[in-house]
Amino acid sequence: MAKVRDVCRHVRSKNAGAFWVTIDLFFDGHDNYLRYGQSQALRPAAIASLCGADPARVKRVLVANLAMVKISYPRTSPQGGIVERDMHSGQQFVRLLDVELG
Amino acid sequence: MPAESKPPDAVKVLVPVGSLGAGVQEADVRYGLAAGAHAIASDAGSTDSGAAYLALGNSKYSREAVQRDLRILMAAQAEAGIPLVIGSCGQSGSDRALDWTRDLALEIARELRLTPRIAVIYSEQDRAVLKAKNAQGKIQPLAPHGPLSDATIDECAHIVAAMGPAPYIAALQEGADIVLGGRTTDPAVLAAVPLSRGMAAASAWHAGKVGECGAQCTANPARGKGVLLRISDDGFDVEPLAVENHCSPHSVSAHMLYENSDPFQLSEPGGMLDVSAARYEQLDDRTVRVQGARWEARPYTMKLEGAAPGPFQTIMLIGIEDPDVLSQLDLFHDRLHAALCQRVDSTLGAEAGDYHISLRLYGWNAVSGRPVPLGTQPPREVGVLCVVTAATQSLATRIAKACNPYFFHFPIRHGIELPSYGFPFSPAEIERGRVYEFKLNHVLQTDDPLEFVRTVWVDLKGGPRTHG
């Protein structure tokens, strides 16, 4: 089993507007992308449970020419709200780094 | 703007910086002018940093920083005789933020003895008008939101509608030297000049999207701040303004992913940009050529942004190095939180109202707010941020003051001498102000891109140098 941190050369997250979070996983080479890009662990149901999002709203897009997977989901608390901890969602990728890809 | 008898083959847009106030570099601007730029365009705002800027109408960048950038750009505009287009002025693009930017521009014009024709384009919306439009079914929600209620409209301190390029094009065609716009979609600001000169929509919009963050689409965004876009009917070229930097097919195509929930399709006023078939190729050492995007015309919509003020917060911070605490941080957090709530209930009682206390252990799990995996080694130190939220600022501070001695001295177990944790500040309580949230995620439908927009001219050419 490989972890995200082992097979991606760059992983980042950011707010996409005020209501969405988007995570970009750039795989280290096309072989890794082909092998792990479609892993169950990166599909909406798994991401929803990891990030606390509504599975029906999680979007996953495969971008083959960049060997990357983009995952987007609605924020679980309002941006800048009373429990805000990450205004720009820039640290939300970290919880994916140790996810095991089958 | 020079009169041209026939449309040019290509339009060059100098994008000096990702956001006005972030630090325009004179060498960048020089390079772009020498390359024959037809216009200078930049946005000056974003919603990324939260709703407070829209609710308050304040700029994220300081007055001095914005004025410094604007001074360089206005001087370049006058020197080259090309239009200068700035969108989403003053961060939120609200009327107040736009007027603030206009006044800075007028100060600079006086200082440099410039006499531009300035078009100021407002897009803040009236609540009563929006309610009427909502009742007519002209306002639709975007995911994940539902239908808009009048109550939500009333909650918002300010509401802006994001403009497309149409009002900019109208102002440019009427001879504006400088266009200062309220809230506008980022790509529209950069697409306005190429569209006004007849370039294909797909090229103009795709170039606008790639260039919207300035040098962010280059191989080394730390080198220089801007890019030069050369837009033609069959695509566009992009190169950094800093000679020591370059663009690569990867840096340009990867930027299309940035901050978008969908990497291939971008909804804009009046259409949808589809880049799924776009091709990115290295044209020379520094330049990437982009072709193959499609623009699909759609009914015209403007995205609404509305910011509502919420409750108030007072915060306190302590630092802890005590190993007894660090070895039991989760227990410490839970006991301290319970003790603080109990303290508030016993001292303020019902007066505290619907208050909220949040403790964030920086160095442990403050950022994620999630449980730390079992077996994680204790950190060397933690910072504990206490965030008190209440209906008024004075109430939040009263609660924080009631909590202060417990927060300062809370022991990890009973029966030990009371510890004293490390306050960095005195007084310990910091009144942080209000919480603000974006409430709208809806689009306003209209057949006329100018219906919800107001253009005011400030013409310094013939008239007096002062604006009433």
Indicate the low-confidence ranges of chain A by residue numbers. none
Helical residue percent of chain A? Answer: 10-25%
Spatial strand sequence of the major β-sheet of chain B: 12-13-9-8-1-2-3-7-4-20
Number of strands of chain A: 6
Q: Terminal Cα separation of chain B, in Å?
A: 26 Å
Q: What best-fitting shape of chain A do the alpha-carbon axes yield?
A: elongated
Cα distance spanning the termini of chain A? 6 Å
Largest sheet of chain A: 4 strands, antiparallel
TL;DR?
By secondary structure, chain A is an alpha+beta fold. In chain A, 19% of the residues lie in helices and 32% in strands. Chain A is elongated.
Can you tell me about this structure?
- Chain A has 102 residues and is an alpha+beta fold.
- Helices cover 19% and strands 32% of the residues of chain A.
- Chain A has three helices and six strands, in the order βαββααβββ.
- Chain B has 468 residues and is of the alpha+beta class.
- Chain B has helices at 26-34, 52-56, 63-80, 95-112, 127-135, 150-155, 166-173, 186-196, 201-211, 249-255, 323-326, 329-347, 393-409, and strands at 10-15, 39-45, 84-91, 117-122, 139-141, 158-161, 178-181, 227-232, 235-240, 265-268, 271-274, 279-282, 288-291, 294-297, 301-320, 356-362, 382-390, 430-438, 442-445, 454-459.
- In chain B, strand 1, helix 1 (26-34) and strand 2 form a beta-alpha-beta unit.
- The two termini of chain B are 26 Å apart.
- Residues 464-468 of chain B have low confidence and may be disordered.
- Chains A and B meet through strand 2, strand 3, strand 4 and strand 5 of A and helix 10, strand 15, strand 16 and strand 18 of B.
